Sequence to fold (242 residues):
Amino acid sequence: MTRLRDRRPGAAHLDLAWRLEELPVPGDARSLFARPEAPLHLDLGCGAGGFLAALAARQPECNFLGVDRLFGRIRSAAFKAKSAHPDNVRLLQADVRAFLRENLPRHSVSAVYLLFPDPWPKRHHHIRRLFQAELLEICSILLMPCAPIYLATDHADYFRHMCATSHAKPGTNVGPWPDPDSWPRTEFEARFLQQGLPVHRLRITMDAPLMNPVARMESASEASVIAPCVSCSQTETPDARS
Fold:
């Protein structure tokens, strides 16, 4: 099996990195881990991997999968993960949308992180933004009931878009991050804070799965109904001050 490789000396960290077509079990990215049954956290657009490695080190009982389309970022993230806590981190070079559509079973994800995605500030580029209604719907199928999606951006207009898109979905609860200062910082966040720029955060949970947009998923008539979780049954107010 061909794996991501770096010809430079000391590139053993790439043992943690894979391409989408190299999944040991096609259609199930949990197969990358030694403990596929452990709770799975997804870092979508993981960048250089500082946040991913730090959070994984804090929660060794969980699996953490970072996904990014750029090899350079995957290489950097793999190096950080190898230095911090390699047993529960894997990296996947892939387009995020393509990965989410076909490579995880439904209700198999315990948390999703989408931190400082490209805001595509020009109006005619907004369609390229990663966080859209379609992405939220797909995540609602992959996430366990009441499992969170954590969003962060420095871009005020993108934050308003995130809020509006989230509030528009039935069964969606929107609120602030718990204790935001206690979380690891991404490389982008550290840079923005150093420049004195505001950082906006959003936490989303969904009481029940929405209509499945992925053709390979089971039909709605075959899907089981999942009751709302008591802990997230009330809508919270987004914290625009963060």
Remarks:
- The chain has one domain: 12-232.
- Residues 6-10, 209-242 have pLDDT under 50 and may be disordered.
